[in-house]
Design a protein that fits this description.
The chain is mainly alpha-helical. The protein is built from one helix and no strands.
Length: about 80
């Protein structure tokens, strides 16, 4: 082989080694990122479940209060007319 081709092979192998190292580092970061995203989605799911429970409880309380308020208004109007 000529000297120019040997230099090209050395340069090419060095560039490929750098790209290989960068690919390994990027893969490690992507694995960490996917783990963090998984944890965030689990946390968001728990938060949504808690909010759903609060809304369901508020609905159970609000419905009887609304009925009681309507009955109270009706009684006040009935008392005013008499």
């Amino acid at each position: 082989m000529s000297q120019a081709s040997e230099i090209l092979v050395i340069i090419l192998s060095a560039v490929l080694a750098i790209f290989l190292i960068l690919a390994i580092i990027l893969t490690v970061y992507l694995i960490k990122l996917s783990h963090d995203i998984r944890e965030i989605t689990k946390s968001a799911g728990r938060t949504v479940n808690n909010i759903e429970n609060v809304v369901a409880g508020a609905t159970k309380i609000a419905s009887p209060l609304f009925v009681a308020e309507m009955i109270g208004r009706f009684i006040k109007k009935y008392k005013k007319t008499k």
